[in-house]
Task: structure prediction
Amino acid sequence: MKARHEVEQHTNEVVTGADVLIDALVDEEVDTLFGYPGGAVLPIYDAIYRSQASFKHVLSRHEQGSIHAAEGYARVTGKPGVVLATSGPGATNLITGITDAMMDSLPLVVFTGQVANSVIGTDAFQEADVLGITTPITKYNYQVKNVSDIPKTVKEAFHIATSGRPGPVVIDIPKNISSTVELDQLEEEFSLPGYQPTTQPNPLQIVKLADALKNAKRPLILAGAGVTFAEASDQLKEFAEKYDIPVTNTLLGLGSFPGSHSLSLGMAGMHGTYTANMAIYECDLLINIGARFDDRLTGNLKHFAPKAKVAHIDIDPAEIGKNVPTDIPVVADAKETLQALLNTSIEKPDHDEWQDELQANKTNYPLWHDRSNELISPQWLLEQIFNESNGEAIVTTDVGQHQMWAAQYYQFDKPNRWVTSGGLGTMGFGFPAAIGAQFGAPDDLVVSVVGDGGFQMTFQELSILKERNLPVKVIILNNEALGMVRQWQESFYDERYSESIFSSQPDFVKLAESYGVRGLKVDKEEDVVEMLQDVFAYDGPVVVDCRVVQQTSVYPMIAPGKGIHEMIGVTK
Amino acid sequence: MKRIITATVQNRGGVLNRITGMLHKRQFNIESISVGASETEGVSKMTFVIDVSDNQSLEQLTKQLNKQIDVLKVSDITDKAIVARELALIKVTGSGQLRSEIQGIIAPFRASIIDVSKESLTIQVTGKPDKVEALITLLKPYGIKELTKTGVTSFLRGQQPKQVTELNSYSI
Ligand SMILES: Cc1ncc(C[n+]2csc(CCOP(=O)(O)OP(=O)(O)O)c2C)c(N)n1
Ligand SMILES: [Mg+2]
Result:
């Protein structure tokens, strides 16, 4: 371990378990640690202080902020997000984020302090059964029993978090371990005989898929986040172009195929485009690459791709056949599979008729929205955000109507620029995720599109913007409501707006200013473009309170229980 | 349909919790689990009897088990030539006359009486689950005071008939 010597040179002090941990993080080339201190991690914070380690520590104001920031960091860098929190309440404050990362396959390595081994199991002060609590929401978890195991455990955790289907890994470190002076020989090597993800596609399945493609008249690619994780966007583009196959994306797959490409049909699913969803309904070959056929995508399974032969490429075999019966299963990495397909010579099929049909749908059933003369139209605002950022921003969102509008109206041409909570749908995610994204991509424009509801769940992290002068642009789509809840109550509960309209709200401008962050408010469409130009050119953090129309819904929509071909609100 | 699934697992902390938690979360109906050492140090063997509704759910079950990082191998051995045994301890009320009657009942099952008190006797039986079940049914009229079972443990016979092919979830 080269890092070890550096530490010793700096400090000339005894080496504790915590120092060994810091070395292990340096060995993993961690550059940013998102954390929050407390009793059980004091030895680790002391080691951070003493080590002058090469990574930075970002102090949040709530552990949930730390972990969503780590998720945002992981999403834009492709590297694992690393988190540190104390035992008990520190650890339990991470639970939402760990679950979120598990659902969206984000690589995280999370360190939690634990009470000393001698009192584990006695309901000691700030003791929580972190292993028990996190077992169902992690890819794997550990409690460190010996200092000498730290290097090996950290290596193994990073390996598990980032390989195969990525996911969160928790390492629980009792306080006696982090404070013990290290004397033993350190264990470096790990072995995982039960964990060997299959990355190479089975050649027989590639032949089958090639054959299916040759015979398909109406093929369709559904590209998910697996394409982004595998860094397979170039191969996907080449493959789609070579065989003239239209592409639709899942919510999390946006950006894995260029949204502006002529073969792109936009997003599929509950609030996807009519064209994409009808393409799924009508296709005769559906090639799913790295998506998990989530229920918000499929709608009623009975009507999902009813005419299609289904091919499913996924690195996680357990996803294949879970929700949708699969004719051609390919357990492999998306990039390897696409490369194998590109290396296979397949007769170039003619899909002109199919393409014409899709093109007609695109022309006849585009996304639509109303403009109002009072407040700002939220969909229109998203279009302006897209235009004024030249489509080049990293966009993070919270959860709700604004999230769906961002997905619909902000077109991503590149991967790793779209950060949203899909599987868990976690309100409070969007703003801290933007902080992590900005740390991961310091030179990029990071725009955080949030709702007035969700922003209020985690806005305390405004402190970080000020502290680090992070130039995150927060755009609040303020409809004075839990808009998505209001929409469902309007549509499915006869407009009984139970607890979804806010009768009191903070002054978001003053709120931002109280944190030392620039705050703006805009309520007229005519001021929007100028405001955005100003905000995007400003070298520093900004919070904008955008007053948008409340009585507007996200359309088109597959109502709950309905099939993918039964969208409502397709036209005005 | 009831399936007998075996898994070899690495003996790491929390492995049983992780597996039963997964089965519970994914709504698999566990009839029995038995866990113990295997021929290899550090490796345990689990035998599950699980009731699944259809083949899709069975496939999910083996895949989800395989997905666990500590799981080395999963086999559905239901349709193979296997040896499967469970052990039951059954305490029945019985004194005097009844005792010899009970002895007559359990003899064909090669069960044995391992404890006797004034009003009760305890019977130990080992065998395939259906045999154990049959004995329990026969003893019920005498009044079962207490019953405990180990769950099935099982593996393949030394020789397999040729036509049987292994159901391996990774074969796709
Ligand atoms: C933590 C959490 N609690 C509750 C919900 C349920 N929920 C989904 S969308 C939504 C409304 C969000 O309101 P807001 O943040 O203002 O966004 P809008 O829909 O108005 O754009 C709620 C309450 C959730 N997704 N996450
Ligand atoms: Mg709102």
